[in-house]
Specification:
This protein is α+β, with helices and mostly antiparallel strands. It has 4 domains: 3-119, Beta-Lactamase, CATH 3.30.450.20; 127-217 and 247-317, 2-Layer Sandwich (Beta-Lactamase); 334-435 and 472-496, PHY domain (Beta-Lactamase, 2-Layer Sandwich); 588-758, Heat Shock Protein 90, CATH 3.30.565.
């Protein structure tokens, strides 16, 4: 019978080091021996060091029945322990083999029963002691709230139970770079807490083994590996030791541990949702082994962490999540008018930033950008939206490192992290976070984790702190922040839909009002053409007929008087026709509105009316007027008509005085279905009017006083009304008989206005 060892002697290179077959080393650590037993209980694998425990060699036992070497009683005990194909891994089997007491762990590998035997601990800790320590730990664990506090407690508890010099809770990030998240160590040791280590320190195949085998032990870092031998009856015959406790470790990993001065290690896997979340890494600076009871207690410490990760992470985020929820509730409960100006109110609400803990936010609606906080320039926002739409084809997009997706924005420190949502046709909302420059302390240069020299590959031997500056990324978005943004984006979309419906409703309402007013105007124009225009025509006809009938007897003076009366009637008719022409020419011109400085309009109007004002001995006082969204020449015509009206209806009992006041800042003024942002008030001390005429005085050709007493066509204030309707504003009048009149004009909101009050 031919016998050979199964030691893996493949050379590890830079090309294959990440695929080093560490699960089939063909060797074990020497603090125990290993047997591989077939299903019919023949010894198919045996380690060379069996001779250190019994008076037999591996050559003598390979190929023989297990009972022939160790006796039938031992075989029956192991069979009973295995219970068919089920392997009990919680407690090893205590058994006597050839007169010596051992603890045996058993697992199945490729149909082979793998028996790993260690001598029974002479000063074996009692299970009751480990149980007592565990109960004490659970009691303390319930007093912790955060995950970090729990991990710190586990590090302390594990060190107390195991006696290792240093215990670290090692947490992985998404790329499997590690961070020492919690630590407890001897006072004379340099702490590693907060240090980061590159993913290459624990390569992929090692991480896979940590998932399969959740407890790994190195008793003496200076051990000499013991080879495994087998009956050479099959080509490529090997033994997978993924679940082995005694498995020999990768030479590169052993050298790594030697470089940091470690003498023995215990590693416990922290598995969360099927993935390797982290490790409990125990270091001792001399040789050290621990009993099965202590190994189990330490393993339970790891399970305490993994069972609490979701709860503790949720608890850690609970306070911030609650703030987000409160901000979202406050934001969605604001009673907003269904007008486009409400977007400006929304953008100025601090809760809009708070729901996602963002530094800036922008809302784009109908090519108009509303933004607050730290945001990119408008052209960058438009470009970013276009690129997101073209690349993702999705209504939602978020990242904390925009340069990974759109490198052209890498230089903009205000545009490192974004949450983007589409909110309907031509609507978008974006939350921004600026670049967060962070400093990471690595336990050695991560770029030099593997070194190659003429003797082969080696792990780095320098573990001096190496600082890395991380740029071009913001702090990561939490899931509750992303969810809150999504919820409010939906609310915002509903608001935009309501605004659109309201605008359409207002459009149809305005068209209906215009049609109604047009019909009324036609009736009034028809009335004036049959009444006011016919009256001077009748006078002209009567005077000229009388003159023609008295040509022979009429004097020159009488002719002159008659012609003056004809001229006066003709002038009145001409004035009426001119006013009608002005009135009918005013159209709805809101599409041509622009910024108008009312101060310039007022000064030019007063200058033009200088003679009339002087003749009336009137004084005009005015304060600073706002810039409004209107049409310049119509505002001039408006001011002339209002001032002329005040001069015309001045009181004979006192000197005419006109005072002009105005809103100094934009302010939302609600009036039924409309919203205005500025007002200007013309107050005079004239004859005033009764309150019941506040609406009718703006109707075309309406006069409250007889033509003989106060001249005019009755079109002046009607013309003012139509001008304000044309620019999307409104005009109102308030009067008190014999005290005076207030004419108040309201201007529409400029999209650029900053609204400060609702």
């Amino acid at each position: 019978m031919k016998i050979r060892d199964i030691v893996n002697r493949d050379i590890v290179t830079l090309t294959n080091c990440e695929h080093e077959p560490i699960h089939i080393p063909g060797q074990i650590q020497p603090h125990g021996f290993l047997l591989g037993i077939t299903q019919d209980w023949k010894i198919d694998f045996c380690t060379e060091n069996i001779a250190s425990y019994f008076d037999v060699t591996h050559n003598q036992v390979l190929g023989k029945d297990f009972s022939a070497v160790f006796g039938l009683v031992a075989e029956q005990e192991i069979v009973a322990y295995i219970k068919g194909d089920e392997v009990q891994d919680a407690f090893p089997l205590e058994i006597e083999l050839l007169g010596r007491l051992f603890q045996i762990n058993v697992h199945i590998s490729g149909g082979i029963y793998v028996l790993e035997a260690e001598l029974l601990f002479a000063d074996q800790e009692k299970l009751a002691d480990a149980y007592k320590q565990t109960i004490q730990f659970v009691s303390q664990m319930n007093k912790t709230k955060s995950l970090k506090d729990l991990c710190a407690l586990v590090a302390q508890g594990t060190r107390e139970i195991t006696g290792y010099d240093r215990v670290m809770i090692y947490r992985f990030d998404e790329q499997y770079n590690g961070e020492v998240f919690a630590e407890d160590c001897r006072e004379d040791l340099e702490p590693f807490l907060g240090l980061h280590y590159p993913h290459t320190d624990i390569p992929a195949q090692a991480r896979e083994l940590y998932i399969k085998n959740q407890l790994r032990l190195i008793v003496d870092i200076n051990y000499v590996p013991v080879p495994i031998f087998t009956v050479d009856d099959k080509e490529g015959k090997n033994l997978d030791l993924s679940l082995s406790i005694l498995r020999s470790t990768s030479p590169i990993h052993v050298e790594y541990l030697k470089n940091i001065g470690v003498g023995a290690t215990l590693t416990i896997s922290l598995i969360h949702h099927g993935k390797l979340w982290g490790l409990i890494a125990c270091h001792h600076y001399s040789e050290k082994n621990i009993s099965p009871e202590i190994r189990l207690a330490a393993k339970l410490q790891g399970q305490f962490i993994t069972s609490q990760i979701d709860i503790r992470q949720s608890n850690d985020e609970y306070i911030n999540a609650q703030k987000t929820i409160v901000a979202l509730e406050q934001l969605t409960s604001i009673d907003l008018p269904v007008v486009k100006e409400s977007l400006q109110r929304i953008i100025e609400t601090p809760q809009l930033l708070e729901i996602s803990n963002a530094s800036g936010v922008a809302i784009l609606s109908k090519n108009k950008i509303f933004k607050t906080g730290i945001t990119p320039a408008d052209d960058e926002i438009l470009s970013l939206i276009e690129k997101i739409i073209n690349k993702t084809k999705s209504e939602i997009f978020y990242t904390n490192k925009i340069s990974d997706h759109f490198p052209e924005f890498a230089e903009n420190a205000n545009l490192a992290g974004i949450i983007y949502h589409s909110i309907g046709i031509n609507g978008h909302v974006l939350w921004f976070r600026p670049e967060t420059v962070s400093e990471i302390n690595w336990g050695g240069d991560p770029e030099k984790s593997i070194i190659k020299d003429r003797n082969g590959l080696h792990p780095r031997n320098s573990f001096n702190i190496w600082k890395q500056i991380v740029k071009n990324q913001s702090s990561p978005w939490k899931q509750y922040e992303i969810n809150a943004a999504s919820q409010y984006a939906h609310t915002l979309q509903n608001q935009l839909i309501l605004i659109m419906l309201s605008e359409e409703e207002e459009k149809y309402r305005n068209q209906s009002e215009i049609l109604k007013e047009t019909n009324s105007e036609l009736e009034n124009i028809n009335w004036i053409s049959t009444h006011d225009l016919q009256e001077p025509l009748r006078k002209i006809q009567l005077i000229t007929s009388k003159m023609l009938g008295e040509l022979d007897a009429i004097s020159t003076e009488s002719i002159s008087n008659s012609l003056q009366r004809v001229s006066k009637s003709a002038n009145r008719m001409s004035g009426l026709l001119e006013d009608i022409l002005k009135y009918t020419r005013i159209k709805n011109t809101r599409d041509t509105l622009h910024e108008v400085d009312l101060n310039k309009i007022l000064k030019s109007t007063i200058k033009e009316m200088h003679e009339s004002i002087k003749e009336s001995n009137a004084t005009i006082e005015y304060e600073n007027l706002p810039e409004v969204h209107a049409i310049g020449f119509l505002m001039r015509q408006l001011f002339i008509n209002i001032l002329q009206n005040s001069l015309k209806y001045a009181s004979a009992e006192r000197q005419p005085k006109i005072k002009i006041t105005a809103s100094q800042e934009p302010v939302l003024i609600h009036d039924r279905y409309k919203v205005y942002c500025h007002w200007v008030c013309f107050s005079d001390n004239g004859i005033g009017f009764e309150p019941q005429y506040a609406e009718s005085i703006f109707k075309v050709f309406t006069r409250l006083h007889p033509q003989e007493e106060y001249t005019g066509s009755g079109i002046g204030l009607a013309l003012c009304k139509k001008i304000m309707q044309a620019v999307g504003g409104d005009i109102k009048a308030e009067g008190k008989p014999n005290e005076g009149t207030d004419i108040i004009i309201y201007f529409p909101c400029d999209p650029e206005d900053t609204l400060t009050t609702l």
